[in-house]
Amino acid sequence: MDETAFVNETKTKMSHAIEAYKAELAKIRTGRASTGLIEAVNVEYYGSVSPIIRLASISIPDSRTISINPWDAGSLPAIEKAIQKYDPSLNPSNDGKSINIKIPALTQERRKEITKQVGKLSESIKQEIRNFRRLSNEKIKTYEKSKEISEDQSFKIQKKVQDLTDNFIKEIDEITKRKEKEISEV
C-alpha cells in the first residue's frame, strides 16, 4: 500500500467537500451582492434551458447591485422571468439593455436565521469530513489485519489522516466565521 497516495486520496475527498461548502455558502444571501446568488438560475430561451451564465455576463457594480448584460438583448424578458421564478425576493429591473437587481438590506431577524442556516451547513460539512476520516481509518485497519502494513505504519497513517481532519475542520470554522461576519455587517 502506498501511504502517500492513500493520504492524498483522503485529502482530495476532504478538499472536494470544502469546495462544495464554499459553493453552498456563495448561494446564501447576505445583504451583499454576489454573482453566486443567481448563477444557478436556468433560463428558458428559444425552446431550450440554459444557465444564465451562458446567456449573459454578470457583474457587481457596487456592494448592493447585480448587473446582468445579456449577449442577446432579446433574451432580457426570459432572463428577468427566470430570476423572478428562481427567487421571488429578488426584484430585477429591466432597462432594455441590461437587468439590475438591487439587493435589499437584511433585517436583524433574517440575519439570525441565515446565521443559523450557515451553522447547520457548517456542522453538516464537518460531519462529512469526519466520515471520510472514519472510512480511511477502517481501510487502514483492514490493511493492518491483512498484514499489508505494520501496526506502526497503521498508527502513522491514522495520525496523518487525523491531522488532515483537524486542519479541514479548522478551515471550515474559519470560512464559517467569515461568512457569519459578512452576514452581520449592515
TrEMBL record:
GO cellular-component term (any): cytoplasm
Biological role: Responsible for the release of ribosomes from messenger RNA at the termination of protein biosynthesis. May increase the efficiency of translation by recycling ribosomes from one round of translation to another.
Protein name: Ribosome-recycling factor
Subcellular compartments: Cytoplasm
One Gene Ontology biological process: translational termination
Upper classification of the organism: Bacteria, Deltaproteobacteria, Candidatus Acidulodesulfobacterales, Candidatus Acidulodesulfobacterium
Domain Ribosome recycling factor: 22-183
Keywords from the named record: Cytoplasm, Protein biosynthesis
PANTHER family referenced in this protein's UniProt entry, alphabetically: MITOCHONDRIAL RIBOSOME RECYCLING FACTOR PSEUDO 1, RIBOSOME RECYCLING FACTOR
CDD domains assigned: RRF
InterPro entries from the UniProt entry: Ribosome_recyc_fac (IPR002661), Ribosome_recyc_fac_dom (IPR023584), RRF_sf (IPR036191)
Family from the record: Belongs to the RRF family.
Gene3D superfamilies tied to this protein: 3.30.1360.40, Ribosome-recycling factor
